[in-house]
Amino acid sequence: MSLLVGLAIERGLFQGTDEPLADTFHPPLPPITGPDEQITLDDLLTMTAGFEWDESNVAEFNVWVLAPDQVEYVLARPLVSIPGTSWNYDSAAVHLLSAALTASTDAGTSGFADEVLFQPLGIAAREWELDRQGIPNGGAGLSLTARDLAKLGELVLQGGRSGSRQVVPADWIRDATRVRFTAVGGLRATGTLGYGRLWWLGQLGGKTLLLAWGYGGQFVAVLPETDLVVVTTAKFQGLGDGAPAQTSAIMDWIALSVLPAMR
């Protein structure tokens, strides 16, 4: 979603990261109640929309997934902080970016992604979970092969380039991987991590780490200083309380086995 928003801005579909979310929808969004209804695209990209939300376990996420309308569900959540001021991991809020893309493009999120990102990278096979209104899930549910996930990591490693083609603007990659909020999470191997625009940012083995972090240990770890991309996939169904331990163990493996093997 971070890459797609950058591409949408480049093509003029969105006016910029400071554009209010409500301005991307026609007809307008349902009303948002709280201290400030001017949630911007950047608030969604940085996990600072301000909705009341608890993703410390899967319970609230699952209720949202099963709701009759996922967009209306998250918009009905009260705002508990002024947008842009307080970080809180919220997959449902990120889904609003996919809804905004669907409202702003003839091809919808999925078709737009195929045209501007997946096809240029040679990614042909994918599955993408849809919400009850047919909108691709912006916060989860995109299935790609490990090799294709690595292509996305390489794209970021190379500043948005793939071969001789600049697929994503280099300045967007730089901005998306710049720390906006510090010490918002972490793992045993990484210590505390910061956050950019839907990227976790920090250190691994003393090296700069740009991390796409999915539930249960689905990782795309980009380490620019070693010219390395590491992709891991893992069974996540039914993990329950075991998810944090599995996630941490997988990152330990990258730190203790993969990095020392680099020459």
Explain how this protein is built:
By secondary structure, the chain is α+β, with helices and mostly antiparallel strands. The chain folds into 2 domains: 2-128, DD-peptidase/beta-lactamase superfamily (Beta-lactamase); 149-168 and 180-261, no CATH class. It is built from 9 helices and 10 strands. It has helices spanning 2-10, 41-45, 59-65, 70-75, 91-104, 108-118, 146-157, 170-176, 243-261, and strands at residues 127-128, 142-143, 161-162, 165-166, 181-187, 191-195, 200-204, 207-214, 218-223, 228-232. The chain has a 6-stranded antiparallel β-sheet, with helices on both faces. The chain has a two-stranded antiparallel sheet with strand order 1-2. Helix 5 crosses helix 6 (108-118). It is globular, with a radius of gyration of 18 Å. It starts with a helix and ends with a helix. The mean pLDDT is 93.
Based on the model shown, name its key terms.
263 residues, alpha+beta, Beta-lactamase
| Principal-axes shape call | globular
Kindly report the average pLDDT value. Answer: 93
The tally of helices reads 9
Give the SSE order as H and E letters. Answer: HHHHHHEEHEEHEEEEEEH
Strand content: 15-25%
Structural class category: alpha+beta
Q: Biggest β-sheet, characterized?
A: 6 strands, antiparallel
Low confidence ranges: none
Would you summarize the structure shown here?
This protein has 263 residues and is α+β, with helices and mostly antiparallel strands. The chain has helices at 2-10, 41-45, 59-65, 70-75, 91-104, 108-118, 146-157, 170-176, 243-261; strands at residues 127-128, 142-143, 161-162, 165-166, 181-187, 191-195, 200-204, 207-214, 218-223, 228-232.
